[in-house]
Design brief:
With about 375 residues, this protein is mainly α. It has 15 helices and 5 strands. Helices cover about 60% and strands about 5% of the residues. The longest helix is centred in the C-terminal third of the chain and has 38 residues, at about 265-305.
Length: about 375
């Protein structure tokens, strides 16, 4: 639907150059969004199935650990980092080598930011501007972007595309309008007259239009979707992340957001968003089910070895939580002696369950091969 622009253009001057900044109208749109009912139903069913798979998991934390890290990698790749999931896991094992350090620190910050936001929601903290600023502060706590007002709304003009506002593809609201725009968005997040999925799609687009921070807007805006689904109890655990879908359809994603601004075409954006929720929820559910089958099959193989496989079974339990591990980590954090750890790793390598991933003779790193391969789908370096 073409409603005309979804906001007003305000003439501004930036370092002596005249341009126009866009100030969006508050949500919800008028007239109301007429979403595709079939797409909405399919996305809702897929989300419900994912919630059901989550409830059947013997330990959801097994998957949360790795899913959160995969999302951190994908969301950061959209912003231009080169780090992979394997490199992040190596970094967390103090075993990173030859990896762009700024990139892997940036992704590690995103893991911390996501975990902080989700933990605050579990504490009962409201989904609010204060929470979004806290998450942003963690995201930019160190490394690239740490000089760009972490945890604070911007106090200077930003823009998207181009070398300056005058030749930019899009210029967000001036800093003097950011707080008012974000205040309206905060009220909308709690507008329960709209279904959560529709509200999440509208809120994400509005957040990206406001672009309230100097850096990190894309990552915080994508995380906002998951935070809202968890806040509204649509997912018991945060296993839905849209970054793989948005990475694959990046051009359409940016074009549809811009069309919302220029034509008020919320329907096209919401249809795209709902299709992404359906695809992403189905993929997450299928991956969780496949990993459960893999865990059981590998456990059965180790059980069949009798007493010989006892230490390997203990190691298998660790690898379900941490699919990349080193012998020093097993000794320091998981109750293994070095000889027992090395013996268990050799056995699991012989069984084809574990492989060494550095090729080094010393300071070796071991990975749960099939687990890491399943998680890496779509998260390879761009």
């Amino acid at each position: 639907m073409d409603r005309g622009p979804s906001g007003i253009l305000l003439p501004i001057s930036f370092v002596g150059e005249k341009c126009s900044a866009f100030i969006p109208y508050p949500l919800p749109p008028a007239p109301p969004v007429q979403s595709n009912m079939l797409l909405k139903e399919r996305a809702t069913v897929a989300l419900g199935k994912l919630a059901g798979v989550t409830s059947l998991l013997p330990d959801p934390q097994l998957f949360l650990y790795s899913y959160v890290r995969k999302e951190a990698v994908l969301s950061s790749q959209i912003e231009g980092t080169q780090s992979s999931l394997s490199e992040l896991l190596l970094f967390e094992n103090d075993a990173v080598a030859g990896v762009p350090m700024d990139d892997v620190v940036e992704v590690s910050n995103y893991v911390a930011a996501m975990e902080h936001g989700l933990a605050r929601l579990r504490e009962g903290f409201p989904l609010s501007l204060r929470l979004l600023k806290e998450i942003h502060g963690v995201l930019l706590q160190k490394g690239r972007g740490s000089e760009k007002q972490p945890g604070e709304f911007r106090t200077s003009q930003n823009w998207i595309g181009g070398s300056r506002p005058g030749n930019a593809l899009y210029v967000p609201p001036p800093p003097t309008h950011v707080l008012e725009c974000m205040g309206d968005l905060e009220k909308f997040l709690h507008n329960e007259s709209l279904p959560t999925l529709i509200r999440a799609g509208l809120a994400h687009a509005q957040f990206e239009t406001i672009h309230p921070f100097l850096d990190g807007n894309g990552r915080i805006g994508r995380l906002l979707v998951t935070l809202l689904l968890c806040h509204d109890k649509k997912l018991p655990e945060p296993l839905l992340y849209l970054s793989l879908y948005l990475k694959k359809h990046r051009t359409a994603y940016y074009d549809l957001l811009q069309r919302v601004r220029t034509h008020g075409d919320w329907e096209a954006w919401i249809d795209f968003f709902l299709a992404g929720v359906e695809e992403t929820a189905n993929q997450a559910g299928e991956t969780a089910s496949r990993l459960l089958r893999r865990f059981q099959a590998d456990r059965d193989r180790l059980h069949a070895l009798g007493r010989k496989g006892m230490s390997a079974l203990k190691l298998h339990a660790v690898l379900q939580h941490k699919p990349v591990i080193t012998v020093p980590r097993l000794v320091a954090h998981h109750g293994f002696s070095a000889p027992t750890a090395n013996s268990a790793l050799r056995l699991m390598i012989d069984q084809g369950i574990v492989r060494e991933i550095t090729g080094y003779a010393r300071n070796r790193v071991f990975a749960y091969a099939e687990y890491l391969r399943a998680l890496n789908e779509g998260a390879e370096s761009p």
